[in-house]
Amino acid sequence: MITVRKLATDIGIRVKATRNEKRGARYLRKKFEEFGYRTNVQRFEVPGGTSRNVVAWWPGAKRYPFVVGGHMDSVPGAPGANDNASGTAVVLELARIFAGTEQARFIRFVAFGAEEYDSDHVSNHDGSVHYVEKLGEEGRERLGGMLSVDMIADGRPLLVGHSNIAEKPVVARTVFNKMDKAGFDVRFITLCDCSDHGPFEHAGIPASFAYSGQESDYHSPSDTAPNLSSNDLLRTGRAVRAFLIHLDKAMLDRFRRA
């Protein structure tokens, strides 16, 4: 809960291209680097200013590994504890857990900016769109896949799926199977194109979305740290870890062939 409280309580509302979104990015970059990761901040323009992605990788990691990401911004008026300090916290904690391990060579951790719509409802998923564009043609062909961790601390079962955009849901099925076999209460589902997995699927990259379902504090001033479930937050972190511990070159190659 430390990262959730830092983002949603200490920093607060983190609308894209605002000072608070930048503060969130600065905090996350510092934490990744404390864990031993190298980082890069991708800056990009959105309506109203500049947003950014924080990208972290272990020294010596594969150039085109598997992306685990969550967005760090929130909508106007909402502190964004569940949406999506929760997912960002899981991403950061997994980075800490896997630091220095063999698995770290196969993972790129990303805190995406500007996932939410702007006030005029013109654009969303800007950070993940930018990330996918920056991959270039070779990167889009060779990236192993992607998992978006978004709104994951207020509901059961954990929902895992895809948006039926990419040709085969190989990543989504694999994520679900590994979590299910590890004993987690998880359901496979076709989800909306409403998180940062979407731009990856649109680019032909197999991707998945982990989500705990719609809840009453969504996009509300009541989306605060006390109103989410620390047990569900822990559950999701452990479930994603149950998938990532199996990640290796053979699995990435299978994802790429899909």
Please describe what this structure looks like:
There is one protein chain. The protein is globular. It has one domain (2-257): Zn peptidases (Aminopeptidase, 3-Layer(aba) Sandwich), CATH 3.40.630.10. The longest helix is centred in the middle third of the chain and has 18 residues, at 81-98. It is built from eight helices and eight strands, in the order ααβββαβαββαβαβαα. The protein is α/β, with parallel strands linked by helices. Helix 1 (2-11) packs across helix 3 (81-98). The protein has an eight-stranded mixed beta sheet, sandwiched between helices.
Overall CATH class: Alpha Beta
CA distance, first residue to last residue: 36 Å
* Tally of DSSP β-strands: 8
Overall residue-averaged pLDDT value: 96
**Helical segment tally?**
8
Summarize the topology.
Layout: H1 2-11, H2 19-34, E1 38-46, E2 49-57, E3 66-71, H3 81-98, E4 107-112, H4 126-142, E5 145-149, E6 158-162, H5 170-181, E7 186-190, H6 197-202, E8 207-211, H7 230-244, H8 249-257
Parallel strand pairs: 3-4, 3-5, 5-8, 6-7
Antiparallel strand pairs: 1-2, 2-4, 6-8
Helix pairs in contact: 1-3, 3-7, 5-7
